[in-house]
Design goal:
2 domains, alpha+beta, homodimer, elongated, 6-stranded mixed β-sheet, 26% strand
């Protein structure tokens, strides 16, 4: 006997990937999904009723308007989603609900007032989402190939640019982070992939790992390019980071690159189904600190290595499992990034990120793009 | 005396626009924002600490790690965000929290267990967001201009395409919904705007208002193009729909177009600050039904006019106020769409959507694009 009668989502599947995974129906506005026993049910507005019947992968699509009418008949003047659900749940004898941790507190309070027992399940709410099917891996790989094509175009532009004094010039204009992001994002959109927060961070900017980067690209400084688009068609993401220098890298920057590369290899060498995400991360941290790279706060900012080593990826850009603090054992056929980095504003930044499938005895890389620093 | 000691968000500002509006810091992963009295505070991970200090518009950026350490010192082995917050709230004497309705139930339950009183505030959580500043209107207008440039390119392609038997041909290939969406989305990305669910729905497909459209475009049938991108730079959206026919529209489709256009004009003629969103919608419905267009369910799908007349737009594509069921009085300087439509699979679909600012004595259109059916 399960401890609940029904699973419940009231959310927009555009932003809630568990909901999208469960019903395979995409909508930008919140809607109601419930699974009662084995029956998957959508309760859809008039606007989405037809499309939900055509596109969703559920057993039953019910009309929200019809149940709203029943709620009004039962005496509720302006029924909310919870009142409308109450009619359905009463019909079906549902009393105990299982919801994700993100379930809205207002709906939760209202359902509790109506007498429902609500239990939250932490992520992964849908455990099978962590393990990717061949089809899902194919979708992720396709997004990854488009990412690599785009990054190649950006690198071609950096290589083609000519250093003159402090800046790089291409077609008579200063090469900027904005221009490179434009090349990356437009190239990806041409391939049906949406890249929203592409990072092209030159020099000290790259030392803030999420700084998206602005302004001129200079010769002889690090350029961190972190590109992570979602396919509009399949909704699966990809993720890759490369760090390059146009010209000559300083010895310090070269040492940082070597250390990050080595740390990534350490992670790869230990990666396999059953390996522990937290332990892998500790190994990566140790490799970098053993190589002499300190992690600490300086002037209110962190330097060194201060983010996780990797994250699961699929319908979300960040999803379980984690290779980082609190990370659990990795299952076979999960897809994760491996992305150590080093960040020191005075020297620049290095991050190298590949995407891999975890296998029974190791891993299979989904990333084909080569690694090099100077171009 | 306010009824709460602090406002609290634990969310990702990428998807929670109230949070973005409050702190102007953009992140894809959840973070903690609280306003205690007048002081706006971010509690940021090491990864985002530097960027938050540089980019956010808050009074104080605190280190999550530091408070996590304090929670551990207080005996919590693996502190959750709520435990970390508890340290801060105890420091500051906070006991009563105001949260949005979307606040996650798991965090809410935990905070209640820790003794906090939690009150939800329904949308609009931040009331001033409904009223747009001149700067916000300028951002929306800029997104709208890019939308119009993109739609012009799509219409140019439709016009350029040559009918041959059942299809339209361009550069020797069948013109499809996919090609038109590609033109629209790439054109918008070139301008730094992200369009994700662009609709180009030919013929009967358009009769499902959210069907994004696939396959060949045929001569003499309706083509509904609904384009709504978000600027990557400002994060403000735009929204426009035009319906065209390449060739000759049937008399029935022409009548639908005239009725929808007239219904839009009826809404415009009554639109001004203080007008009621629900009443405006009823007027639009009445105009369409008086013109003989029935709204009803046929074979499990709705036909006629079965969506709202308009929605607020800003940092979200759909936000208060609504011109539709349950709509309230419209304030001055709010930005809304006005988008009546008619949907009959056997005849096709018509939707016409403009974006306007509500003024004291009427409205000012942000849409410059002309309206015509046949091209």
């Amino acid at each position: 006997m399960p401890e609940h009668d029904a699973i419940l989502f009231i959310a927009a599947s555009e932003t809630d990937s568990n909901l999208f995974y469960a019903c395979r129906f995409l909508a930008g506005d919140p809607f109601v999904y419930t699974q009662i026993g084995d029956e998957k049910i959508l309760l859809m507005s008039d606007l989405e009723l037809g499309r939900a019947r055509d596109e969703s992968k559920v057993d039953t699509v019910l009309s929200y308007s019809r149940y709203e009418g029943l709620a009004k008949n039962a005496g509720v003047t302006t029924p909310q989603a919870t009142d409308v659900l109450h009619v359905l749940f009463q019909e079906q004898g549902v009393k105990r609900l299982l919801v994700p941790t993100s379930f809205g507190i207002a709906h939760g309070d209202r359902l509790r007032d109506l007498g429902y027992e609500i239990k939250c399940k932490p992520e992964p709410f849908i455990e099978e989402r962590v393990v990717k099917s061949d089809e899902e891996i194919a979708h992720i790989t396709e997004s990854q190939r488009q990412t690599e094509r785009a990054v190649q175009k950006a690198i071609d532009a950096i290589r083609e640019a000519k250093p003159r004094k402090d800046f790089l010039y291409i077609n008579g204009e200063v090469l900027t982070a904005e221009k490179l992001k434009h090349i990356l994002n437009v190239s990806l959109m041409e391939a049906g992939c949406v890249a929203r927060h592409t990072i092209v961070a030159p020099g000290a900017q790259g030392a803030d790992p999420h700084n998206q980067g602005t302004g001129p690209i200079r010769p002889n400084e690090s350029i961190v390019m972190d590109v992570f688009p979602q396919s509009s068609h399949t909704r699966y993401w990809a993720d890759m980071t490369r760090t390059v220098v146009r010209g000559k890298a300083s010895d310090r920057l070269k040492a940082m690159y070597e250390a990050v590369h080595a740390a990534q290899e350490v992670c790869f060498s230990r990666l396999k189904a059953g390996a522990n995400g937290a332990e892998l991360h500790t190994e990566v941290q140790k490799t970098l600190s053993d190589a002499g790279f300190l992690t600490e706060e300086r002037n209110g900012k962190m330097v060194g290595y201060f983010h996780g080593t990797g994250h699961g990826l699929g319908l979300d850009i960040h999803e379980p499992p984690r290779i980082g603090k609190g990370g659990k054992d990795l299952p076979e056929n999960t897809v994760v990034t491996v992305e150590p980095g080093l960040y020191y504003p005075e020297h620049g930044a290095v991050r190298i990120e590949d995407l891999v499938v975890v296998t029974a005895d190791g891993y299979r890389s989904l990333t084909e793009f080569p690694k090099y620093l100077e171009i």
